[in-house]
Specification:
globular; 82 residues; single chain; four-stranded antiparallel beta sheet; 1 helix
């Protein structure tokens, strides 16, 4: 099973040169799954559990807390609620 959201450390610093798009910075390790769903730009979305902090849906502004499911676009750096 994936680690509990409270045991997941925040992502690495941008100073390390790593991309910190939503699907990477918010996802609990091992929970990302490819989906058939697309963002408004037509990019594929990944589904994952929020690990730490919160995700906010770009369409309805609903806050997704740690442990909740959210969809993320790696290209647009956006989130959509389930």
């Amino acid at each position: 099973p994936p680690p509990s959201p409270s045991s997941v450390a925040p992502p690495p610093s941008p100073a390390l040169g790593l991309p910190l798009v939503a699907a990477i910075r918010l996802a609990a390790p091992g929970t990302e799954q490819c989906t058939e769903r697309e963002c408004s730009e037509g990019h594929p979305l990944v589904c994952y559990l929020v690990a730490w902090s919160c995700g906010i849906c770009d369409e309805c502004d609903t806050m997704q807390r740690p442990g909740e499911v959210i969809f993320g676009c790696r290209q647009c750096d956006g989130e959509l609620c389930a």
